[in-house]
Amino acid sequence: MKEARRLAMLIDDVLDRSFLTMKKEKTPTETFIEYVEQITDEEIKQNIINSYIHNQEATVATLERVAKQKGLYEKVITHYEDDNRTLDRKNVKLEREILERDKSQVDYNPSQKLKPLKISKAIEKHLEWEKGRNLDYKTMGKKVASLKYMLQILGDKHVHEVDTDDAEKVVLTIKKLPRHMQSTFKTDNILEGIRLNEKAQKPTIKPKTIGDGYITFMGYFFKEMKRKRATSYNPFETLTSKIKDGASTYREPYTIEQLNTLFSDKLFDEEWGIHQWMLVLGTLTGARTNELLQLRYADIVMKHGKPHFFIIKRDTDSDKSLKTANSRRFIPFHKLLLDLGFLDYVNRKKELGHDRIFHEEETPTNEELNFSNNYSKTIIRILRKILGKEDDYGPIVYYRLRHTFIEMMRESGTDPHHQYYYVGHKSDHIGAEYGRKGDISAFMTNAFDGINFHQIEALTKHIKKASARP
């Protein structure tokens, strides 16, 4: 349609200039042919030339009549429009005004109409669908909060009415969101929470939380609404990366020097228990805190002749939770982990009659079933006592060991798709959609020993001590 309009306007311009030039220069045939050659549509051009040849004496009158009747416009535009509507340039401006006034009647395809759906109703249906995906409590909680905050900020307008200005308004408001708003101010209303937070002069949430959490989930919501034809575009599509600018250092991996400082601490001269092994496993497996704390003895299995952690939530596991479906995976025991005597530790604990390896951490009684809620505070205190509260790359937290694991895989040349598998992430590569999922090949098992953890010299020094442990 756009091309048809452009062509029609070009024809009109050619005709107008032809008339003026012919009257001025009095060379109608040469001038007419020169200008008519600018028309790219061969059929239209030939029709005009034929008309001129057949009745040269009446050319000017014929062309004026054609221009007035818009006959050429009708033919061109009818060819490009599905509903055979006829438009001239006078109608274009009016049509645009109509479309702006009623955005619900336009989509990428003119024959399709958008569904008039209020944000509140759309959120209700969207969350109903999301809950059926069995997401972990933390992810689900952020999804619910992000959409609830968006509704509070924008009001209950139609989904298709939300534009980029609205999206930017949401982002600017979310940036002022207090940390731990509900526990600190006892409110779940974002505008009220921001007002109280500014009055109390307390810190706001981090940019990474905004980008990776709230704004990303709002983008997912509008992507789904676009698929359901409740809107024609996603106003949050380009905002997430901008929000995360400057926040990428929040979870940087630890350096080898920091790891050597950590594993040289006097903590590791004591008998190794839950804290020592959690720090070692965080480094050598990259597993999340909750995944390690909920491990049972039955979750250590043999694959391809070597022991593996099986990160899984079986139907009978009423006290387990997984972050995503991709979290289900096998993680091989690295040779260093075996040399440090982890299996001996497991067998000793098993003889005591406990079901879980790290039974010291009590099973959570909340519906989230997340072991890390309380333990994270304990392990962070231990880490900060050894490494300090923060470094040049951000706060000292346990989760950075997971990023350390990923970085050491990269440095060791581990296949990128295997990296995704080991940490329980989904690979964006098309090949990830094929083959057996959730299992591990013999090649991957054997290649795991190629990760160069032995460069952490302070950790390898504990190998000899391991054989002396009771």
UniProtKB/TrEMBL annotation:
Keywords: DNA recombination. InterPro entries: DNA_brk_join_enz, Integrase-like_cat_sf, Integrase_catalytic. Residues 278-434 form the Tyr recombinase domain. One of its GO terms (molecular function) is DNA binding. Coiled coil: none annotated. SUPFAM superfamilies: DNA breaking-rejoining enzymes. One of its GO terms (biological process) is DNA recombination. It comes from the Bacteria. Gene3D superfamilies: Intergrase catalytic core. This is Tyr recombinase domain-containing protein.
